[in-house]
Amino acid sequence: MILLSHIAMRREIEKKGRPESAFKVPLWPVASWLATAAILFVIVLLGWFPDTRVALIVGAVWLVLLGVGYVLFVKGNGRNRPQLDDHTALITLPRT
């Protein structure tokens, strides 16, 4: 989820023309997509072998329960994306 959120954030930054972050991601975007593919590969492997299939099913049930709990218990502004001030251009990094 974090990888997909990061990819979506980078796309939004590029689309809105915001300044690039001073903290560069090595091998962007290839590394993020390779890591996502590796995670999907592990999920497929969990389903492939009968001994590990239980872990996959329990994990899927857990994610469904978390989603149901979110829908039932998160109310009001907890569902709205907060408006954050962009201070990216104000950050200056010390030179080494």
From TrEMBL:
Key words of the record: Membrane, Transmembrane, Transmembrane helix
Predominant cellular place of this UniProt entry's protein: membrane
Domain Amino acid permease/ SLC12A, chain residue ranges per copy: 1-75
Ranges that cross the membrane: 25-48, 54-73
GO BP terms, alphabetized: transmembrane transport
Location in the cell: Membrane
Membrane topology note: Multi-pass membrane protein
Keyword Hydrolase: no
Superkingdom as given in the UniProt entry: Bacteria
GO cellular component: membrane
InterPro entries, alphabetized: AA-permease/SLC12A_dom (IPR004841)
Protein name: Amino acid permease
